[in-house]
Design goal:
Strand order of the largest sheet: 3-5-4
Structural class: mainly alpha
Distance between the termini: 85 Å
Helix content: 40-55%
Radius of gyration: 25 Å
Number of strands: 5
Strand content: 5-15%
Largest sheet: 3 strands, antiparallel
Shape: elongated
């Protein structure tokens, strides 16, 4: 009987010691080591790839944000502020009425099949809106010129980038709304177009937040 109690006590003590050691190693030392290496080697990415403007953090280069007008009484969805470049449509993007902050609401895809009527209606309405919003006097936008990312959300719903084609489609509208030469806005898009990673991975892309920060500086003469 005494031997049985002694053996049980030894097993419990061994288990407790293992728990304490693993807690310290896995719950304290390992996280501290990983955090220290991350902060030392690539602090920018470790801190969320923050983007700053005028000395303030205005967002992350990994998370998209919207550029909308203030919500009016009776409106359920705010209208886009057309003086800014607009991101991909997405229910995962938070409203950004002052273009300096973002609010993350949710992340996720629509989970609709390609022949789903609701998705087709969304895409049709989005394409009509893109055509209407970006057509300027003397330069109407053809529905066939609207790229896929202008009317569909990404898998996460938080994509911060758009295609160069969608950015170019918005150039004349942005130039007109901000009283800027079209060529200057085209140059701005070109300067903020990133190529494929390592030359072959992914597609060329334009980070909307970074582009709009540069646009704001151009408009304000910074």
């Amino acid at each position: 009987m005494n031997n049985s109690v002694a053996n049980t006590a030894r097993l419990l003590w061994a288990g407790l010691r293992a728990l304490l050691v693993l807690t310290v190693v896995c719950g304290v030392l390992y996280p501290l080591a990983v955090t220290g290496v991350a902060q030392g080697v690539f602090p920018d990415k470790a801190n969320g790839s923050e983007i700053t403007a005028n000395g303030k953090v205005v967002g992350s280069e990994l998370i998209g944000q919207r550029y909308d007008l203030p919500l009016k009484k009776g409106q359920q969805t705010a209208a886009p502020d057309l003086k800014w470049f607009q991101p991909r449509p997405s229910n995962g993007l938070g409203t950004n009425s002052v273009n300096t902050q973002y609010k993350l609401i949710l992340s996720g895809a629509t989970n609709r099949s390609g022949d789903n009527k609701e998705l087709i209606d969304w895409v049709t309405a989005a394409k009509a809106a893109v055509v209407e919003d970006n057509s300027v006097p003397g330069h109407p936008v053809s529905p066939s010129d609207v790229p896929a990312d202008a009317v569909t959300s990404s898998g996460s719903g938080l994509d911060p980038a758009i295609s160069p084609a969608y950015a170019q489609l918005q150039v004349r509208r942005v130039a007109e709304r901000n009283h800027l030469p079209v060529a200057r806005v085209e140059k701005l898009v070109e300067q903020h177009t990133d190529g494929r990673i390592l030359g072959f991975v992914g597609e060329p892309r334009v980070n909307v937040l970074q582009l709009n920060i540069a646009l704001g500086q151009l408009v304000n003469g910074a």
